[in-house]
Amino acid sequence: MTAQQGSVALPASPVAPVHSLAVAGRRLGKLMTLPTQLLLLFIFVFPGLMIIYVSLTWWGPLDGTPWYDAYESLNWFDNYIEAFSDERLWGSIGRTLLIMLVAVPAEFLIGLGLAVLFVDSFPLKRVFYSILLMPMMIVPAVAGYMFFMLFQSNGPINQILSILTGSTVDFVWLNDPNLAFVAIMIADIWQWTPLMFLILLAGMLGVPEDQMKAATLLGASWGQKFFRIVLPKMKVVMIIAIVIRAVEAFKLFDVMYVMTKGGPGVATETVSVYIYKVTFFDLEWAYVSAIGFMIMVFLSVLGGVGIAMMARAQRRRREANMGAADAAARG
Amino acid sequence: MATQRAWAVAARYVLVLVAIVIALVPIVWMATLAFKPVAEWTTATADLTWLPKNPTIGNFEYIFTGQTKEVIVTLEGTALRPVLASLVIASLGTLVAVAVGTLGAYGVSRFAVGGNLPLSVLQLRLFPPMAVMIPVMMMWSYLALVDTFWGLALIYGIVTLPFAFWLMKTFFDEVPREIEEAALVEGCSPWRVFYRVTLPMVKAPLATTVLFVFILNWSDYLVALLLTRKDWVTIPVYMSQLNIAMTGEMYGAKAALGLIAAIPPVVLGIIIQKHLVRGLTFGALKQ
Amino acid sequence: MATLHTSGKPLSRRRVLKAGAAGFALTSALGIAPRYLSSPARAAGLAAGMTGGPTGFDGAERFQYNESMSEGRAIEGAKQLKAAGKAPAKIVMLLTQGAVGQFRQPYPEGAPTVASVWEAETGIPVEIIGAGETDIIPKVMQDITTGSGSYDIYTGPWNAVGDKVDAKGIVNLDEFVAKYKPDWGDPARGTPTPEMEKLLYTYNGSYYTISLDGDFQTWVYRKDLFEDPDNIKRFEDKYGWTLGHPRTWQETDQIAEFFKSDTMLGHTNLLAPFWGLSTFYMRFAGQAKPNLFFFDENGKPNLDSDLGIKACEEHVKSKQWASKDALSWTWAEAYGAMAQGTALMMSTYTNLRKFNDRMNPDGTPATPVTGKLGSFLPPGNIFDGDLVRRSVLYYNIQAEVSSQSKFPEAAYLFLQWASSTRTFSWMSGNPGGYFDPFQKANFQEPLVQQSYHADHTAIIEQTIARSAPTINYAGQGAFDNALDEQLQAALVGEKTPAEAMQAASKEWQKIVKKRGEERLIESINKSRSAWPTLLDKA
User: Fold this and answer.
1) Using the beta-carbon criterion (under 8 Å), do C489 and A266 form an inter-chain contact?
2) Can you tell me the ipTM of this complex?
3) Based on the domain organization, do A129 and A235 belong to the same domain?
4) C103-149, pLDDT tens digit by residue?
5) What's C365's DSSP letter?
6) Is A301 at the interface with chain B, CB within 8 A?
């Protein structure tokens, strides 16, 4: 289960002979990206235009007119202005970010800890490993129903806690704003730590063995090896793992919609749950469109910045490599 | 030194076992609940038992035959169709996402085409689907895609495309080009290079991508709720309908279905287990 | 006691269907007007003078009809549409999953299913598509706005009718009602009062929706505990009055407080989002004589009035006698607590006793509380000698014809047939679903009395007379949602009741403005006229 066999071990070439392939296959490249382009066009054009158009009006299903007649109630930017002072929207964004900021690092740390435990082989490792991956195979909606039952005040979780602590624990998990929040995060951490574990373990197994051996020969302690060799080598893997989870956590819906429906009150209302409620209960579709568009713009900027940073990091690495090659040539 | 090692081994087992127990608590609850009769479902008041007092296969019988002794209401539709629908739709959606994503990723990685494509693809994944459901609902209805397997598979393919695209792109980026160049020099066409040389090298990440995309498609509730009606209702949507006047939510039946719904991803996971860890490094390890 | 049947029933349904289809094929082949022909097997079971209805069980004749009756007119109309090629290949109905059983489950023993009788008599099959109780509004709104036309018939809460009318999603039924004359408002068999017919079937003066339910929140309690001499004595020592049916909310709260213990909930009234609104509205409505309305005549919310805030304070206070998990309990968990015998009383949908207070087919009690439940009138407040007892109508499954249906008349006829007093009496006794009785004929029906219990149906009837409508005008979803969130904030202690009511009131004013003040005030005042005026002597 090591990550080193195969082609990856070959060193990257300092000079970039990409051009020949790039030139030979330009037509093919266009052809290959065509399906992606088409799907994107398909999913962006109509929804994008409709969202922008509708967001500039008061239109909603209760008008009884089709959406393309929305111009009758044109209001330009009123929805956007309203969004800026919408406490519930900002509250839900804040809660979503908070879940992200607590759950994702927790998943990361637990995942990393588990990965350390699994890095060398030991009896039954394969079995344990498979069991640990199971939570992410459970459909989130089902997990939501199970957690709803587990977190009842006379439910299994309080029972387990009572046994562990030796005194009666009767937290009212889902009826207390703070505990409900904790319960949601526990459910998220339970379900997605396995993914972190999997990715980080992969990263750890990929650290070249010769370097580790060399460090051991030099008398490095376990801690030194971990912090000086393993962690730096895993940087990219760690970033990927965190980004994947953070993006998905922002969309959190299924589990919590089943567990709390955003309650008690709005204590666990995330952006997705808020939008769901405004869409189907308040029926303010123009307003939802404005929110949707704002999120799209915001996330695009964020994504753009992220990609630019990644590109810069890659460029820097290439330049460093080339610099090294130059130095070698000169020397 | 030896005692220290013994301690370390013991500590490892203890920690791993704790993690396993935590991972299993909800799953064991679900598994035992699936075998509990109606009287033992309720969370309201019944004394709590982990193992069913009167084990029954009634829940499975109910969702697959539509009736069981304890429940007076027969089901309008059994779970068989939703299970098949989920299998068809999630697989097809996965095929779309992985095929399109792999081609696109290779194109972008190798031929410097596509411009801002990576960013656009990323945006698609960043976006909470709930925020665009209104126009998507309209569009799917205009195109008569609501409640068809291809309609749902198409949207699944689209929303998971970014996953496939980015996973594959990171990996292609790390595959050394020398081998491909060499093949090119020997007279292979660029397509043959891709198909015969590069693709076999990324088998492992491809398998991992398939698993992830499949799990995402398999789990979705929201999109399926809004884009299906009856014929192609998937497992999560069908599950939300498992409630009857007498007991409200049919937890036992839901648990039984949940248990069955866990089988395909687990089986897929086992099939590709040996590729799993390798694939997940996204090639990022070569530094 | 209701006896229930279990296995083998789908077979009989299929058999009936087949017989019906064969009969129909015959009539069309012969080219004879269907009304003069019914298959011999069916005719055999019908009482003299009757042309249709269920057969095969004791008392079936009570649900049979001929062309002079509402059901018979609907069947004849449908047959004529079919003969003229104006009937659909099937009628598609979107229905809350928990109610499907009443169309598809045979009841009582030996009976066909309700849907199969229609199918056999008209040859028009009905396809029922189930949806969760809270998923159904999104599904309907989606169908209306996308124009997919997936359904001929929508069902859903009575409260959403205004939204559906404004969205132009449902058909004005005035013409069909005039043509086929349903017996909904029949003085002897229909709604308890003419006003109730207006309330349940019309919106802004026109017929739009058809009631299939009677969700007048009714109180159910543990009779055995109330009648226990030891409890009576201890209660009197503590509160100075004799334990019995409470007249006021104050008395109700004292009873809840008295019985609340580690093993017994003082009440299990609904407090959760969505479901708990009914509990609040009920307490709210009885705060003034004759009523405390949700809005005053000028469309200003009464939520933040002193009385409104008082209602909220009491509502929040009552939480301490309910389950600690009450804020996440739907009716299902609350029913469960009653069924397990760990809750004293609750105000809820009338079918609680249909499900909990019954015998199993094998003659054993279905729950530990079988035979131990009773019902009482809604409590209220006393104003100089008058007792204002109030309950509310909330949720209540209603059916409408979709504007996109290509065969609205046929869809309407199916609904008229199902909602007319004979068919509905037969259907509402069936424990297979949610539909509750509300017509005079339902309450007199032995099958209904058997499953709902005669003492309960008597209380339900009196509760209906004291019930205020909740919100059903356009913007309802937004109104209810806004109030709900503030109520929850008060219940978890994030806001004081006063703060919560002020905030909710502000939200409501905003919604009123958005929906158009004039039109909304008109709807609000129309709704006010449907509020009860009945007062009891204190």
Assistant:
1) yes
2) 0.88
3) yes
4) 998 988 889 999 999 999 999 999 999 888 878 888 999 899 988 88
5) B
6) no
